[in-house]
Specification:
By secondary structure, the chain is α+β, with helices and mostly antiparallel strands. It is 20% helix and 36% strand. It contains eight helices and 23 strands. The radius of gyration is 21 Å and the shape is globular.
Length: 412
């Protein structure tokens, strides 16, 4: 009982501290710390107590991550988000991009789905009370939440001009690209515009700001997730993915950029079912395609790695290398470089959103899993089954021991 009390107050103190970090004016930050710059400091490897607990719990349940997972960046408290003068706590994270000292996470307000589930469970007093509290909550516009890549603190929340179910996000040197779900469009915002709003967040403590799209790009598919690919000739392409739960239906479209702000479909192919994020990566003169797939709150997510061969005609062929089991509801993937020059893979999640608090798995990622890229790419195994009832997890042990990095290396 005494241990439970200590655990309770530790969690309360962690939540209060995190809330202060998110909603203070940020006077202790200076623009020199994280102005978008290729030489900016990279993600800190430090984890707080709650992050460490989640990290070791995930490694315990997902043996495929033992050699690659290095860290978790918790976003759970970050998603009490200032939007239009109010605090919205039902945002659902979707896309993930990391570039020039910034972590960019897209999210949409999941209040309508949350209310529907509360209604279904309103025969229970706790859910009936929660439904009553949400009665005046109208869906807010979608957002981009921007975090400092070094401190992992929120700099500002950028309110988009619509309530679209925003999906993936991708960034190059000039623009930020945002997938617009069933609209079959990609919306574009200049990276310079994002940087100027980030600077206001740093210098003046501006916690939120509205941002308009510069223009839209039409694609020939539902746009669930996106990333940037570079061809053998160094040309930039936009990779657009469509999520679908059934085998052989999730689709990847690869588009060439035209001079008149248009896209031309270069090629398309079917990929693993329930694909939620994908990225092309070049490493040691080889190219790889990594796709993350998830289906529901209780089933394992899976990450598949393929070695890519680009033919003379530019068409791609792929050779399967490995499959990695991950926690439920994995979203987008993002490659980045750490402060020591090590290439890393960031794996986003939507499982911790308040939108999904009813009936979710007890073993989830509460933010972004950071894995060593070389270990992900070096892994080789045969394909496993996609999903089965065995993938539904048992309740996690709340008393998972948090050990130091040195103890972990010693196997203590």
């Amino acid at each position: 009982m005494e241990n439970n009390k200590k655990s309770f107050w530790k969690r309360i103190s962690t939540i209060l501290l995190s809330s202060l970090l998110v909603f203070t004016k940020g006077d202790s930050l200076t623009s020199a710390q994280v102005l978008p710059d290729p030489e900016a400091p990279k993600i800190s490897s430090e984890m707080n107590a709650e992050e460490m607990k989640n990290f070791y719990s995930i490694k315990k349940h997902f043996k495929d991550l033992e050699q690659s997972a290095e860290q978790i960046i918790s976003l759970e408290d970050t998603f009490s988000t200032p939007v239009d003068g109010e605090i919205c706590d039902t945002m659902v994270p979707q896309g993930l991009a990391i570039k020039d000292g910034l972590i960019l996470v897209t999210a949409y307000d999941g209040i309508n789905g949350y209310k529907e589930e509360l209604k279904l469970h309103s025969y229970k007093k706790e859910y009936k009370e929660k439904l009553a509290k949400e009665s005046n909550h109208k869906a807010h516009n979608s957002v981009i939440i921007v975090l400092d890549q070094k401190t992992k603190k929120v700099i500002t929340t950028l309110e988009l001009s619509d309530r679209n179910h925003v999906g993936g996000i991708a960034v190059d040197d000039e623009n930020v690209y945002i997938a617009k779900s069933a609209d079959e469009k990609i919306s574009v915002i200049s990276f310079d515009k994002i940087k100027s709003l980030v600077k206001l967040g740093l210098d003046q403590g501006v916690k939120s700001a509205k941002v308009d799209y510069d223009y839209d790009l039409d694609v020939k598919q539902d746009a669930s997730f996106i990333s940037i690919r570079h061809t053998n000739n160094g040309e930039e392409q936009l990779v657009v993915g469509t999520w679908h739960p059934f085998p052989g239906v999730s689709k990847i479209g690869i588009y060439d950029f035209e001079n008149n702000n248009n896209l031309t479909l270069s090629q398309e192919f079917q990929t693993n079912s329930s694909a939620n994020g994908a990225t092309f990566i070049r490493r040691d003169d080889k190219e790889y395609f990594i796709v993350a797939c998830s289906l529901g709150r209780l089933l394992n997510s899976n990450m598949y790695v393929y070695e890519v061969d680009e033919g003379i005609d530019g068409k791609l062929s792929m050779d399967f290398r490995s499959q990695t089991e991950l926690p439920p509801m994995v979203e987008e993937l993002a490659e980045f470089e750490d402060e020591d020059g090590t290439r890393k893979l960031a794996i986003g999640s939507e499982a911790f959103s308040k939108r999904y608090e009813i009936g979710k798995s007890k073993v989830i990622s509460d933010g972004i899993i950071i894995a060593k890229l070389d270990n992900v790419l070096d892994r080789r195994n045969k394909p496993k089954r996609m999903f089965s009832l065995e993938d539904i997890y048992k309740e996690d042990n709340d008393d998972v021991k948090v050990v130091s990095e040195e103890e972990n290396e010693r196997g203590e």
